[in-house]
Design brief:
Layout lengths: L5 H36 L5 H76 L4 H11 L8 H23 L5 H27 L6 H37 L1
């Protein structure tokens, strides 16, 4: 179990809370036991005196031990509630991370499988490059690879959806969020960075080229929004570091 797990954090809090009352309880109990031993092993007393002393000691120590026990139970209950909250938050954070990572892995698999799906069908060793070359010609009224166009439209919508989920997530810590932003940005750049500026910054004439340019720009805007979030997180970390 990790050192910063919610369970260990709660146990450390309980130990800190208990330390004072635990010491008091141990000292009281020890003093009572020593006194009992002294009375039993010390000078002989009348049996009635011993019984009276025993009753007196029990009467004095029992309420104190009971109060200390009640306090410990109360503190234990409070810290158990805190521990449950820590555990719930950790589970919720893990579910959110699993969801985002699954969306990312599905998107990565879809991009990786694009060549296997369509490269063989059209006889191209690099179907994405062939598609982009058709866009750059700017003289086609429609896509020569209509199913690839639909597939890329779906890909860019996935980028937009994943970026939206990352940006709206309020459960993950900043470190996890920046990590997921970096992975998503690198995935987009791996496939589309080489073409992005040439296509998005150009004025196109053909309907096919205009349509793809808008879709590519949609995916790019999703990445730009993630970059802005990452920059804000880094700025806040820098401010905190300077204040420290």
């Amino acid at each position: 179990m990790a050192d910063n797990s919610p369970v260990l954090q709660s146990l450390r809090i309980i130990r800190e809370k208990f330390s004072f009352w635990f010491i008091i309880g141990v000292l009281t109990f020890t003093a009572a036991v020593l006194l009992e031993i002294y009375l039993l092993a010390g000078p002989p007393l009348d049996i009635h005196d011993q019984a009276a002393l025993g009753d007196t000691i029990n009467g004095l120590t029992a309420p104190l031990i009971g109060i200390i026990g009640a306090i410990l139970i109360y503190i234990s209950f409070k810290e158990q509630v805190k521990s449950n909250r820590f555990q719930f938050r950790a589970l919720h954070e893990q579910r959110e991370w699993d969801l985002l990572y699954r969306l990312y892995e599905e998107l990565k698999d879809d991009l990786r499988n694009m060549q296997a799906y369509y490269g063989t069908r059209y006889g191209h060793s690099d179907i994405l490059d062939a598609f982009i070359n058709a866009v750059l010609k700017d003289d086609l009224p429609a896509s020569p690879y209509p199913d690839v166009s639909k597939y890329l439209d779906y890909i860019f919508k996935q980028f937009a959806f994943l970026s939206l989920k990352i940006g709206q997530n309020e459960v993950l810590g900043n470190t996890e969020k920046v990590h997921m932003i970096e992975k998503t940005r690198q995935l987009f750049n791996l496939y589309f960075e080489a073409y992005y500026s040439r296509i998005v910054d150009h004025e196109w004439n053909s309907r096919f080229s205009v349509y793809f340019s808008k879709n590519l720009e949609m995916g790019g805007k999703a990445i730009i929004s993630l970059n802005a979030i990452s920059m804000e997180i880094m700025k806040e970390k820098y401010k905190q570091a300077r204040r420290a």
